[in-house]
Each structure stands twice: as structure tokens, then as C-alpha cells.
Write a structure and sequence with these properties.
9 helices, globular, homodimer, alpha+beta, 12 strands, eight-stranded mixed β-sheet, four-stranded antiparallel β-sheet, 291 residues
């Protein structure tokens, strides 16, 4: 552990995408999505540990993008990720682990990469694995990110809705990002472009949720329990929509509680992913590969 | 107050520039500086109040960029700014008040501007007033910002050093930004470009401070008490340099304390400027001008 404050852990906020259009490209740094979403105070804590292998909430897992990130940085390390977020339900957990690994490994091994370089490494790894298109750049930014142009830093263009709010969510189960993204995304992307146009015209939270709801309907992704919950929140005067891509409903303020659900509660996260302090653990030999 | 959580205040981190090159342009959105600095947990809290006029730490003041920002947003409002930072000593206080005003007024008056638009409004106001070139975009970003290309969002390009650290500082007095920037900046800018090249090559905190120190010497801006303090920190093995533009010395970690000074202490700020919650005050009528 060579970071001068003894840190080799990062916190990455969860990210709910409200709507998006898919923009594949041969170069994963140029590929990505346009759209908008909410970053969340509920997120993923990622620590670099001695040894090898990736653990998520204490269980050994295989997360494609993470192995990519470690390879790209030329380091051998273990990764220990902890999160309260539901997995595979549209919260950007795989992107968060990839980005957190990049930040924490850079610190632990003195890789001397810039933040844009680390975001690029994680974005490319996520896109190449097919597990996401826009979570990493949104999670690196924080707040309520608008992805105006797709891609990693240098290609993508981000903006944000200047607002903070309480967020409620409830996850009914998984939806495979890989499956949706590998199918025909033309209808979905056309709906996503329309939603983005609306939010760029009026960048407020209420326009964001309204555009997200229209997107979810137009893209044909709603499942019954998701549609029912959104409807129930609307019936009590609240704002809710579906997290892309998961069988998850999110609402602003107390929307889901008001509708009689028992949701998880957090807030939008003011900041993007960042290093965190942690108790010094066993030392990791600093052996960052050639950059 | 129409923001749904009753907020009309923003926190903007202080910003110490370690080195820079000046890049004037006819369009203030394209003008700016390249360079690098530290954003600080010590910053400025800016609240929108009923009435008119700007108050800084309870005293009526005139801050050119702030009046510009309110004009640009088409709102009439009072601005109440509070800070523990020294004024005019290289902490970006004028930029912070401008940016905080933009964020808080947008929320209070439902102006429906995006974050990039608000940063642009504040950046243009600051550049047009001659009070700064790069603080606003750095303060909007947070962390340890590298300004790779000058200008507001859409023109400027930012990156960052992925690190967090304790920062100590001591201010010996004011230095007029207007005066330095209105003089011949060629020597200074050439030194700034060399420093930036080094930091882009090795984006670490120690390279940043080292490049900053070389810049301060090459640019001929050191005053005696500043040079003495930097020297004293170096003598005890610490890293210190001068805040641009102020008669201020900053050090990483415990550099100034170790050298026997009694500095102010804070940390790098993980996030950029953002809205904060505050107790609901008297209502401000929402009358945002045409955008």
C-alpha cells in the first residue's frame, strides 16, 4: 500500500439510468450510451486486497470488467467489493466494481494514471464485457448525470441536472443487460433520443422522471409488477419510473412509501467515485505494470 | 423558494491553483487558463435571500461576477456568502461566490438551467470581471483538477489527479489577480505550460507540488515570506508551494506544522460545487427571466 495516506479503497455511487440510446462502436472508448440517470448514495465500496480473485459481499465471483481493469493496469491484486444494492437490477454494480477497482488499484500500486485515464480503463472494460454502456462515466461524475454524447472521457460529453433529492427504490428482480443490448435496440434508442431531447430542453428532476416513464413505455421494457408500481406512485401524485436495465422501480421523494410499498431509501450522490480512507490492511507490493 | 426540498443554497469548495498559463479570448466562455490545483473542504456557502445586494461574512460587498450572474439568469435576489477562507489570497473566493450564486439562484427561481450552463454563466462572469480564469471550472469539478484546455464546458477540458490529502495553508496577505493578469503574462504562461506537461506525464500529488514550486520560481511571483515558508517546509522534508494568485503557502499533509507554522488545516474536497440543504427561510418569489 503505497498511497501516502494508506488508502487503497474507493467508493462508487450506484447509478440508475432512466432512459438511454445505445451507441455501439468498434473502439470501446467511443462506444457508449446517451441518456440520463441518478447517482445514489447507496453504492459500492471497493478495496484492493493481497492475493487474487474478486469477492462481492464476501462471496467469490467472476466480474469480467474487473479482470480487464487489473490486466490493463498491469497489476495482480485481489478485489473486495461490498454493497447493499441489488445485483443485476439496474444499479450499475458491475460498472461500479470496475471503476472502484481502477481507482483503488491505481492508488495501491502507484500507477500514476489520471482520473480520466482510470475512467477510460473502466469504461472500456465494461463496454467490452457487454455489461453496460454508460454507468461508468455517470458514476465517475456523480449528481444527476446527463450523457449528452457517448463514450469515455475525450469522446463522451456529460452535463447534469442541478438538483439533489431523496430517492426510493424497490427491486423485483434481474433483467439481463447483455440480452437487451445484444438484441435490436433501434426502437429503444429512438425512444431514448426523444427523452434526451426533452431533458436537454428542460433539465429538471420532474422532466427527467416524466421522460423516463415515457421511455420505459415506448421501449417496451415494462414488466407487470414494474408497471403496477409506477402506476401506484402516479395515483398518489408521485414521480416514478423504471431503472434501466432492471426490474426495478425508483421514485423521487416519498413516492413509493406513499403508494404503500416498503422501499429502500437513499439520496442522489453529490460526488462521483472517489478514493476513501480505510484502516491500513496488509501491505500489497507495489508492482504496477508498464502503462 | 420553489426547489422541492426547500433549498436555495450551495457550497463551493475553495480552490488553490498551483500553476497556470493564461489564455485570453474575445469570448469569455473560450477564455481561461490551463493548469492544476487543489479544491478544498474549506469553501464558501452561498445562499439566496430576499431583497438585493451581496453580503460576504455579514458585510455588504460588491463582487462584479455575482451581479453578472444574477443579470444573466434574469433574477433579482440577495446573496449571502459565508466563508472561513482568506479573501484575495488565492483561494478562488470570487469564483466560488459566482458559481454558488448561479447554482442557488437556479434552484430558488426554477430557472431550469443545466449544470454546464450554470458553470458557463459563472465562468463567463468571472473572466469578464478579470477576477479569475480557471477557478470556476475547477470548483465545479472538485478533487484535484487538471485544466488541460481552457474555457467553460464545451470548450475546456478537465482531468484530475486521483488522490485525496490533508492540506495546510497560511495566508500572508493579498495579491491582486487583476493586476497580474492584466500585465505581461508570457513568462508566467511559458512556465505554466512546462509545469502542466510534467503533471500530465505523471499525475500525482508530489509531481503537482514540485511542478508548482518550479512554476512559482520561474514566474517570478514569490514574495520573501512565501519563499521562506516554502523553504522551511522543504527543510523538514515536506511539500509546499504558493497559491496562485495570493501571498499564500500551501503544503500537503503536515508540512507547515512540521516547519513550526500554525496553519489552517483542511482536506482536498472530493466533490465539486453542489446544492446544500438549509433551513427553509423566507420565500423568494420565483420570477426567473427568459433564458
Amino acid at each position: 500500500m503505497t498511497n501516502d495516506d494508506g488508502r487503497s479503497a474507493a467508493f462508487v455511487p450506484g447509478h440508475i439510468t432512466g432512459f438511454f440510446s445505445a451507441h455501439p462502436a468498434a473502439d470501446p472508448a467511443k462506444a457508449g450510451s446517451r441518456g440520463a440517470g441518478l447517482t445514489l448514495t447507496d453504492g459500492v465500496q471497493v478495496a484492493i486486497t493481497p492475493g487474487t480473485g474478486v469477492r462481492l459481499n464476501g462471496r467469490a465471483v467472476s466480474i469480467g470488467p474487473v479482470e480487464n481493469v487489473l490486466d490493463e493496469l498491469g497489476v495482480d491484486a485481489g478485489v473486495d467489493a461490498e454493497t447493499d444494492l441489488p445485483i443485476g437490477a439496474g444499479f450499475g454494480v458491475s460498472g461500479a466494481v470496475a471503476l472502484g477497482t481502477a481507482l483503488a488499484a491505481n492508488a495501491a500500486f502507484d500507477c500514476a494514471r489520471s482520473e480520466n485515464e482510470l475512467v477510460t480503463v473502466a469504461h472500456r472494460a465494461e463496454v467490452a464485457s457487454g455489461t453496460g454502456l454508460g454507468d461508468v462515466v455517470a458514476q465517475a461524475r456523480g449528481g444527476v448525470p446527463i450523457r449528452r454524447e457517448p463514450g469515455a472521457p475525450g469522446y463522451g460529453v456529460l452535463d447534469g441536472i442541478p438538483a439533489r433529492t431523496r430517492v426510493e427504490y424497490i427491486a423485483f428482480g434481474e433483467l439481463s443487460t447483455e440480452e437487451v443490448l445484444s438484441g435490436d435496440t433501434r426502437r429503444l434508442s429512438a425512444a431514448g433520443e426523444r427523452a434526451l431531447e426533452r431533458v436537454l430542453e428542460t433539465p429538471t428532476l420532474s422532466t427527467f422522471v416524466d421522460a423516463s416513464r415515457t421511455f420505459a413505455e415506448d421501449a417496451g421494457l415494462l414488466t407487470t409488477e414494474v408497471a403496477d408500481a409506477i402506476e401506484a406512485v402516479s395515483a398518489v401524485g408521485g414521480d416514478a419510473s423504471m431503472a434501466m436495465l432492471g426490474r426495478t422501480v425508483f421514485a423521487l421523494g416519498t413516492g413509493l412509501s406513499d403508494a404503500g410499498y416498503d422501499p429502500s431509501v437513499c439520496r442522489t450522490h453529490a460526488t462521483g467515485a472517489s478514493l476513501v480512507e480505510r484502516d491500513p490492511g496488509p501491505a500489497v507490493p507495489p508492482t504496477c505494470g508498464p502503462s
